[in-house]
Tight adherence protein C (Georgenia soli), 310 residues
Amino acid sequence: MNATALGALVGLAGGVGVCLVLWRVAARRITLDARIAPYLRERPRTSRLLAERPVHTPFPTLERLLAPMVDDAGRVLERLGSSSVSIRRRLQLLGGTTTHDQFRTEQLMWAAVGLAAGLLGALTIGVLRGAPFVPLLLGVLLCAVGGAVARDQALSRQVRRRQQRMAMELPDVAELLALAVSAGEGPVGALERIARTTNGELALDVRRTLAEARSGVPLAVALERMAARTDEPSVARFAEGVAVALERGTPLAEVLRAQAQDARETARRELMETGGKKELGMMVPVVFLVLPVTVLFAIFPGLAVLRVGL
């Protein structure tokens, strides 16, 4: 390594160090609210260091030591990517038990894997081909950012697939619920029968709604919460329609059959739209690949005859 490259590396390291110091100083700046808050609220009887915190890994001591750094990295990821509100909403739509902090930890792990892969690739390219340092460094940083973005996109895909599965399961669930109500069962009994006899994402959401109803929440309110936990319009209309029918005394079986019919019509319309988009996509290879080959096969004999005549 020559003197110029060594000087550039030392300057880069010094600049990164100064930026990190300034960033930490700005992050730890004490505001006026933080100064007067201890005098305006009741102080805890014990130290906050002794407070019980949930543990999500098999290494609780290491997790507590790394928790502040993980929080700081999470704020950096929030500035670069999706906000905490968006992540919490998507985790709610996913219906799992993953918390926001757990997702940020997973995102950091994906970024670390991308950073390791980028370092391995940069070292391989640098040793074999002697590439410049700055492009290799940019490639490593892009790999790390790509790992964090990939985890965010994976969450969006999981949410989208779950919402699609719920929309596909809705007509059958609504029909079964209508049959149970028509047979004389009450709304809670019909929902319990659906939860026992069916499997899928919508059945899991129904079980969660029944758990809230058993805990003392009115069934109509639990159904409204179920509608708020989804972005699929048909599922939200189903839950809200059942809640309104329970509150106003509307015949529930007719409402459920209408909901099932609407869900099937929506599914058929979406299928037709998807088929139209696929049809347009299939035109691309036909127009740009098959049609030129067909034209060449049709014109080539004539061109060969003309060339022989000349």
